[in-house]
């Protein structure tokens, strides 16, 4: 989604703004712009398209030491130069960048138009600049506060004024905003990746707060001018973690990082002595854990698929009713919150609007909500009642890969913890830990055979439709495989339970529609093999992911990719890797923009 960067300090602002925007590219955008203040004037350059276009349009000598920049992901109004941010007021004295959606913009715009303001863009954001200009009486901070009182909806805003040099005013309601404290320089960003090249000292701005920033000072207040003392946090990520290194794409790098990221998610959390797990961040006593009667996993997209996998695991190992729910649906169906039910919201970014709002709705009803998040300091982990960081390191590619397997890891550990408080014996606990310990090596050995998946992608990437089919705990893996393929290669792909195809999707089978079956050696293997035969009988090409040495599968499928034999419940890890690679190599061969696929954003901060 949209990205924000602001700078004030001793260095020329333009190159810092452009560099910050480059670091935000991964969020997804369709246009970009900057505004730099210099000697009592504001200069704006904005362009539709990629940042190279903007970069080329910014003059080499673009003077000014304070400024704001933005990458836009269109919501209101088409993608063009005019609708790109920053927006300036009619007089050209005030500039703003905005993330989020102003819900009452139509009414505000109508009123402003009646008062003689002529708008230039089709965006909701432009009303902010115009409101500021009508409310400005020599103090930008006060004008921002008054404007915020009028706005309805979500926003992260940064504003600047030509007559108040070296000053940025940031405000937040529902869209993230972080202050970076440098050496005689300050930055504002919509996430820490925009700031990390300059400082690791950050202050997270909360909803309802306004921050006044100069090169050497900052002050945070609420809309009623009450001062708010903020904690300074230190970012733990290193700059190198957001570089591609020798990889062609962030997605490729992140897929190959999984043996390590899975290990990190487990580190210090496995208690071999008692055959259980330690998850201190849950903030729950053993007694409270024992009282849990139901677990609900709430998320969107890939994180939802991780939740689905874990719902199978939890019911089978811990014997606790568990289900995954789409956050976007849960929020609006007036969910019933029962006593002794624990909710996990799962989110890589910790900023997904659907998930965040569902969490708030659950908390409002009195539920205890725990977070499973990657981005430290994001809104979900800050507002949840406890939780687990997955420690994947920054995930930059829009298509989520390593976060998925680390989310599984964290929730597998929670399952172990809670299962061991119930029916799972010490012996069974040790066996489960052994299976968990095997995952990094298991995923590494699958990754070592990436060339085989590349060959499969070369053979099948011209297909227009795909079915991904699995059963039981691997059914959500099939859904995730289909999601990966469609989001980065744009090939139409559907994920189904293999059992379900006879109830409809089998009508799609023909010689040019491949079906990719996940066939581990578990209790459902025979059934899946029958489903494969049904597809073959209708001349559908079959690709299978099976377990080393499974000749029955090889006899039916056109192509087989083998994963090593493993514990039944850890196959989702082994099966997911070739599906991620398959999507990646298909997209590569089709020449797609792998890391920033069309229309998608990394962190979806609007509903
Ligand atoms: C994953 O490949 C997707 N880009 C998307 O489905 C993502 O998982 C979803 O938007 C949820 O994001 P979150 O984990 O940051 O909440």
Tell me what you see in this structure.
The protein is α/β, with parallel strands linked by helices and 607 residues long. The protein has three domains: 2-235, Glutamine Phosphoribosylpyrophosphate, subunit 1, domain 1 (4-Layer Sandwich); 242-444, Glucose-6-phosphate isomerase like protein, domain 1 (Rossmann fold, 3-Layer(aba) Sandwich), CATH 3.40.50.10490; 449-607, 3-Layer(aba) Sandwich (Rossmann fold), CATH 3.40.50.10490. It is built from 19 helices and 26 strands. The chain has an eight-stranded antiparallel sheet, with helices on one face. Strands 5-6-7-8-12-13 form a six-stranded antiparallel sheet, with helices on one face. α7 (258-266) runs antiparallel to α14 and α9 (301-317) runs parallel beside α13. The radius of gyration is 25 Å and the shape is globular. The N and C termini lie close together (11 Å). The relative contact order is 0.09. The model has no long low-confidence stretch (mean pLDDT 95). The chain binds 2-deoxy-2-amino glucitol-6-phosphate (AGP). 2-deoxy-2-amino glucitol-6-phosphate is lined by residues 300-303, 347-349, 352, 355, 398-400, 487, 600, 603-604.
| Sequence stretches where pLDDT stays below 50 over 5 or more residues | none
Number of helices: 19
Helix fraction, binned, reads 25-40%
Mean pLDDT, to the nearest integer, reads 95
**Which structural class is indicated by helix and strand composition?**
alpha/beta
Enumerate the distinct ligands: 2-deoxy-2-amino glucitol-6-phosphate
* Spatial strand sequence of the major β-sheet: 3-2-4-1-10-9-11-14
General form: globular
Count of strand segments = 26
- Tell me the name of the CATH class of the largest domain: Alpha Beta
The name of the CATH topology of the largest domain is: Glutamine Phosphoribosylpyrophosphate, subunit 1, domain 1
**Number of discrete domains:** 3
CATH architecture of the largest domain: 4-Layer Sandwich
The largest β sheet comes out as: 8 strands, antiparallel
Q: Kindly estimate the percentage of residues that lie in beta strands according to DSSP.
A: 15-25%
